[in-house]
Design a protein that fits this description.
Helix 1 packs antiparallel against helix 2 (21-33), helix 2 (21-33) runs antiparallel to helix 3 and helix 3 packs antiparallel against helix 4 (58-68). The longest helix is centred in the middle third of the chain and has 16 residues, at 37-52. The chain has helices at 3-16, 21-33, 37-52, 58-68. It is mostly helical and 78 residues long.
């Protein structure tokens, strides 16, 4: 399977069940394997924020994420 086909299949799985984080986390793993660790980290942080949203601790996760990932790491990432 080509890289584009793999990516498209993962994105289709995310669209099929937007409430399930499993396809998103699989996509994050794929991004790690394809030289996009910053995007992978962002997706994982978003999943964690969604999980924490119910208990009010989401803001803490945001601060923790940006403390671990300097904003320069995201410069030029589109």
């Amino acid at each position: 399977m080509s890289v584009a086909s793999e990516r498209d299949a993962l994105l289709a799985a995310i669209c099929e069940d937007p409430g399930d984080d499993t396809p998103r986390l699989a996509f994050a793993d794929w991004l790690d394997e394809h030289d996009s660790p910053h995007w992978a980290a962002l997706i994982r942080a978003e999943c964690e924020l969604a999980r924490l949203a119910g208990d009010g601790s989401g803001a803490e996760a945001v601060f923790r994420f940006f403390a671990e990932h300097d904003e320069q790491a995201f410069r030029g990432v589109r």
